[in-house]
Design goal:
The N and C termini lie far apart (about 145 Å). The protein contains 7 helices and 14 strands. The strands form 3 sheets. The protein has a 9-stranded mixed sheet, covered by helices on one side.
């Protein structure tokens, strides 16, 4: 065979590759074996691993469900205890009151001792105090754990009034909340609201004027006077959106025109009054401040 191969090689011919048939056969057999191996069921130890993994996953899920249920139960118990046994109100502190006694405020306050601190309706209590006791300007009600309610009262004095047809007076604060409906006289330092008729006036509620636009203007004027901290105001009034007035010291009427940039206009008018007072402290007339840059005085 070797001689034959050498002779063929001498003629430039490739010897027959008989061995390749064997190689293909062995390769084919190997592929068939691999396919059979893939089709055969997995070894027993792999199946056991897969089953153990599933068991561990089920245990983890059960533990998570159990933990969640336990947490819900604990929270429910805490909530029930908090609303029934714990956090009962044993102290109510009321401070800042002068116009009304502590007993008067406590009688109106809907929050009582022995009630649950969480169940206390602080917003409703605030509204009830401010409505039923009109001179309470603001009632700040806060919970203090574990068992205290603090009520901080801010009272108001009369700021504005309207003279009624029966010669009584309706007294109001700077938000136009009615303090008294038929007072016999107006306080000396109160500001008169002129040229405006009331529709309804109920103590503890915002006054309602017959003209809603005039009412909105009056409220805006009131806010402006408060923000500027203007002193010696004796009257305010509004005729329409373009004609709004503030009376200073009963002798000088400030005409603001519209209420756009009302604070700037009022500052400019007060600066003009300061200069006017230096030369004529008893001057009477009207300051036109329809623009914060053009101010002029018309003497009466």
């Amino acid at each position: 065979m070797r001689n034959l191969d050498s002779q063929l090689g001498s003629f430039g011919l490739e010897p027959p590759k008989v061995y390749r048939r064997d190689q293909r056969t062995s390769s084919s057999n190997a592929s068939q074996q691999r396919r059979r191996a893939q089709n055969q069921p997995r070894a027993p130890h792999e199946k056991v691993k897969r089953q153990n993994k599933k068991r561990r996953l089920k245990k983890q899920v059960r533990r998570a469900i159990y933990g969640f249920a336990l947490g819900v139960c604990i929270v429910a118990v805490i909530v029930v205890l908090s609303l029934t046994v714990l956090f009962k109100i044993d102290t109510i502190n009321i401070t800042g009151n002068e116009k009304y006694t502590t007993q008067q405020i406590a009688a109106v306050l809907p929050i009582q001792t022995e009630k649950n601190l969480f169940m206390a309706d602080t917003k409703g209590a605030k509204e009830k105090l401010e409505e039923n006791l009109p001179y309470i300007y603001n009632a700040e009600i806060k919970r203090k754990f574990p068992s205290t309610i603090n009520v901080a009262i801010t009272e108001t004095s009369t700021v504005y009034y309207v003279k009624n047809a029966d010669k009584t007076y309706t007294l109001m604060d700077d938000r136009l909340k009615v303090l008294e409906e038929h007072a016999a006289k107006a306080p000396k330092k109160a500001v008169e609201i002129r040229k405006a008729a009331l529709n309804t006036a109920v103590a503890g509620k915002t006054a309602e004027f017959t003209n809603e636009k005039i009412q909105a203007n009056l409220l805006k004027i009131s806010e402006t006077v408060k923000n500027v901290n203007m002193k010696k105001v004796t009257a305010i009034y509004s005729q329409d959106i373009n004609n709004n007035y503030i009376v200073f010291d009963g002798r000088i009427t400030i005409k603001l025109g519209t209420l756009d940039k009302a604070e700037d206009k009022l500052y400019s008018a007060l600066a003009a009054i300061d200069k006017l007072n230096q030369t004529n402290p008893k001057a009477e007339g009207e300051i036109t401040a329809t623009s914060d840059k053009q101010i002029y005085f018309t003497e009466k």
